[in-house]
Amino acid sequence: MSGKPILVTGAHRSGTTWVGKMLALAPGVTYIHEPFSPRTPAGLSPARFDRYFTVVTRENEARFRPGLERTLRFRYGLAAQLHSLHRPRDLVRPFRDLPRTQRARRSGARPLMKDPIALLSAEWLAESFGMDVVVLIRHPAAFAASLKRLGWKHSFATFIQDGEVPEVVRPFEAEIREQAERPGEILAQAALLWRLLYNAVDGYRERHADWEFLRHEDASAEPVATYERLYARLGLDFTPAAREAVARASAPDNPVELSTPHAVELDSAASLGRWRDDLTAEEVETLRERTRDVWPRFYSDEDW
């Protein structure tokens, strides 16, 4: 493996796919998509996470570390994939994914793990695998508007593991348990999710001066300059082809709205204020008040 593994994380809908795929344009880097997701094929994620936002620590790492080591070393779990087949069309996956991981392993590629679902395990990942970490931050109203537009709800029971709430989100335990028992509407869920995720990120920022913390809004306003700096920070070669691809992915002639949740071609500058069109003035004010204990650490009044 050439160079330290890279972790690109942050809340979902915060630009992690865009940043991960743009950084993976660098020579010698191979993109790994969300091994913490329960929906990721077993061959690519032998760790087999069964819930979203699993918090991995030294206490429970024995269950997950071997599988994640295989993922980061591009060792495809063929047996795990075959055992997990449910439909005939699933047979296609090994023929597509196995050669790709074999090529990455043979070339000594530097793994880039893009995974917002791993956000609450970022410290364990960095310590366990010596990762360079990039954390994306997004305005709470933009985050909430995106969830509203997609209709994405969240089960807060995922944060309750063996009856306990992990330490990293424990300041919100009462609210987590209330939402787990009596789920609220999407914007209420989005506000709590944003608060607990970015309260954790604020702690990371205090403890890890060597990590990169990037606001989605800043990257969207100046994408080429942002990636030039990120490439240099991570020791990556910002080739002319990569520069052109970054400019193309964020160009003004791209749509203001992504075609699919994991698309990356977007008019990044024009999309910045999209949440003001998607939310009512009352919804914006409600979100502002509900997230007030956390957002001033990342944004100013002018950002509203």
Can you characterise this structure?
The protein has helices at 16-23, 61-72, 78-83, 92-107, 122-129, 140-150, 173-181, 186-207, 216-221, 223-234, 240-249, 274-278, 281-290, and strands spanning 6-10, 29-33, 110-114, 132-137, 212-215. It is an alpha/beta fold. Strands 2-3-1-4-5 form a five-stranded parallel β-sheet, with helices on both faces. Helix 6 (140-150) packs across helix 8. It is globular and about 55 Å long.
Strand and helix map with partners:
Blueprint: E1 6-10, H1 16-23, E2 29-33, H2 61-72, H3 78-83, H4 92-107, E3 110-114, H5 122-129, E4 132-137, H6 140-150, H7 173-181, H8 186-207, E5 212-215, H9 216-221, H10 223-234, H11 240-249, H12 274-278, H13 281-290
Helix pairs in contact: 6-8
Summarize the structure.
With 304 residues, the protein is of the alpha/beta class. Helix content is 44%, strand content 8%.
How large is the radius of gyration? 19 Å
**Which structural category do the helix and sheet elements fall into?**
alpha/beta
Q: Based on CA inertia axes, which overall geometry fits? A: globular
Strand content: 5-15%
End-to-end separation: 44 Å
Major sheet description: 5 strands, parallel
Mean pLDDT: 91
Across the major sheet, the strand order is 2-3-1-4-5
Strand elements, count: 5
User: Which residue ranges are poorly predicted, with pLDDT under 50 across at least 5 consecutive positions?
Assistant: none
SSE order, one letter for each helix or strand: EHEHHHEHEHHHEHHHHH
Q: What is the helix fraction of residues, given as a range?
A: 40-55%
Q: Helix count? A: 13
